[in-house]
Specification:
This is TetR family transcriptional regulator. Keywords: DNA-binding, Transcription, Transcription regulation. Helix 5 packs across helix 6 and helix 8 crosses helix 9. This protein is mainly α and 212 residues long. It is built from 10 helices and no strands. It is elongated.
């Protein structure tokens, strides 16, 4: 592809859009600012106008994607006419839909294996989990052993959603294809929550995904 004139505006948003797919398909370490620019048809100087280095570009992707997800989740909570389990089900389905509608976003946010790169996402993952946990703990409040379950149950619910999303992404399945199964999955999880069956499940310490 011929290099495009610098005069033709290369926006920050477009860089983030195209770099996201490159990071997922090629891997962080295989890319340089020069190779990213070349894939986009620009000189590397055009990228340096917006980002000083590859790490800054990658971090900007992480921050943007988590900001979008958190804004959607918070908006759902604010606008919800119902609380408790119905709100939790709505949040869980929305989270699954976000992951399957935006697989490249989700892979960078939650499925990066490189320990060095995880530093960019840990704090944002925590914000996402804390918001979700708050809704779960409000449901658990007043139940027997609720203090003990306050950490265990949110983690197991969250990891169950993550497993559903990562499996579907691995096999290229869209939310439209998986919507009915996603609804059944969320309903099953929430039914188990109400029956306190999750209290017997082991807690999970971190997000992980092993592809087949």
């Amino acid at each position: 592809m011929a290099r495009k004139a610098v005069a033709q505006e290369l926006s920050r948003e477009r860089i983030l859009l195209e770099a996201r797919e490159l990071f997922v398909t090629c891997g962080y370490r295989a890319l340089t600012m020069r190779s990213i620019a070349k894939a986009m048809g620009y000189s590397h100087g055009a990228l340096y106008y917006h980002f000083k280095e590859k790490a800054e570009l990658f971090n900007a992707l992480i921050m943007q994607d988590f900001s979008d997800l958190l804004q959607r989740q918070r908006q759902t909570i604010v606008e919800s006419a119902v609380l408790g389990v119905p709100l939790l089900q709505k949040l869980m389905l929305e989270f699954i839909q976000f992951g399957l509608d935006n697989p490249h976003h989700y892979e960078i946010m939650f499925m990066i294996r490189d320990e060095e790169l995880r530093q960019y996402s840990r704090s944002e993952q925590a914000k996402c989990f804390d918001l979700f946990s708050t809704v779960v703990r409000q449901i658990l409040a007043g139940q027997p052993d609720s203090a003990e379950q306050a950490y265990r149950i949110p983690w197991n619910l969250f990891m169950s959603m993550h497993g559903f999303i990562s499996y579907s992404i691995h096999y290229g399945q869209t939310f439209e294809e998986m919507e009915r199964m996603a609804e059944e999955h969320v309903e099953m999880l929430c039914t188990n929550l109400l029956s306190s069956n999750f209290s017997e499940l082991p807690a999970v310490s971190r997000l992980s995904h092993e592809t087949a």
